[in-house]
Amino acid sequence: MSGTVKESNQVSGYFTWFLVHAVQTGIGILNYQQKIVHGAEQDAWVSVLFVGVCMHLVVWMMFRLLRMADGGDILSLHRQLFGPIAGTCASGLLFVYCVLFCAGQIRQYGEILHVWVFPDAPLWQSALIIFAVAGYIVSGGFRVITGICLVCVLIPSLILPTLYFPLQYAHWLNLLPLWNHRLEDYAQSAIHSINLYLGPEFLLFFYPFIKNNTKAQKWAHLAVFHSTVIYMVILVGTFVYFNMQQLRHTVWPSLILSKIIRYTIVERFDYIYIFNWLFVIFPGCCISIWAGARILNQTLKLPKKWALWVTLLVMIVAVLWVRSPVRIERLENIIMLFGGTLTFAYIPLLLVIASAVQAVKRRHTARSD
Asked: Is the dihedral of CA 10, 11, 17, 23 positive or negative?
């Protein structure tokens, strides 16, 4: 299926690791601990691990699904299964998801800048700067985006050594008692951890841009495993520092942990965290912008330049519309619902439909012979 894209525009298979991991680790790392304790509390790590295992199954489904697409991506698969009109409508819903995904990353980061660093700076300034840089990167093509992912994927992993400082004050008994919650509690924490794992679904768009993409599945699984390890280590480090009551009222736990770090020449280490985290959200923003522009280019036949400008304009409007903290939380819930439905419901359903259609075609071909 990779033949639909010129080889000069493709990247090697092992870059799938960086692409998937970079888009999966975003702004959610800074506050997911406070959300998932509402349910399983100190046992929430079980829910995070369970969703991580489920994501491996989803990745397997996506590769199985994409091998059935004539054009190698979900846009061609929609046309193949549903026809031009219904297929365009289905792809249009994915465009909405791309807009929500990017808007969620940028709006939450803008809120951090407003609360922690620049309380008087208007939202549109930071959003415009991020969109300008992201749009410039996307205009360079998919290989440039891959290079950004390769560089930015290192930053979330650097947070792990800094856990040494809060672990000096760790209370390991905070992890006890184990397994003392109901199944409903684990399910509630699992639902809140869905946002953490969103991102691999963009593989449905950039699959044709990977050389020998049928052999890239192991790298996608490695990316999900990499993300899961980071989430688990940070979660355990947070649980042994905060008790459950403190954690429920701590909005950005990862940033609070960074305030413990003290050096002679660096007093506010949390500022370094905040400004470096801009590079963490860039891959997700760039890939979602690129995917949104590709949808408009493939479905509405807009020129690539115009498709990019329209996508950026829609995303800027979406970010500026979300002004209050209440709307930010509402946006997070919408992304969780939309992304969770896409990942854990629509992709399995689409695989069933595609497999059924393929089986009917094979049976019809066998009868014709």
From this structure: negative
pTM (2 decimals)? Answer: 0.95
CA gap 288, 350 in Å, rounded: 21
> Which DSSP letter does residue 176 get?
P
Beta-bridge partner residues of 210: 11
Query: How many helices (H) and strands (E) are present in the chain, helices listed first?
Result: 18, 0
Higher pLDDT, 369 or 171: 171
- Phi-psi sector, 15: left (phi>0), alpha (psi -120 to 50), beta: alpha
Structure token digits, residue 78: 């929609």
Structural contact between residues 298 and 71, judged by C-beta atoms closer than 8 angstroms: no
How far is the CA of 116 from the CAs of 78, 121, 123, 151, 254, in angstroms?
A: 44, 11, 14, 26, 13
The number of folded domains in the chain is: 1
Q: What is the SS3 assignment for 11? A: strand
Q: What's residue 26's pLDDT? A: 87
CATH number of the domain that 76 lies in?
1.20.1740.10
Residue 350 — φ and ψ, nearest 5°? Answer: -65, -35
| Domain of 82, in residue numbers | 2-368
Mean per-residue pLDDT for 171-178?
91
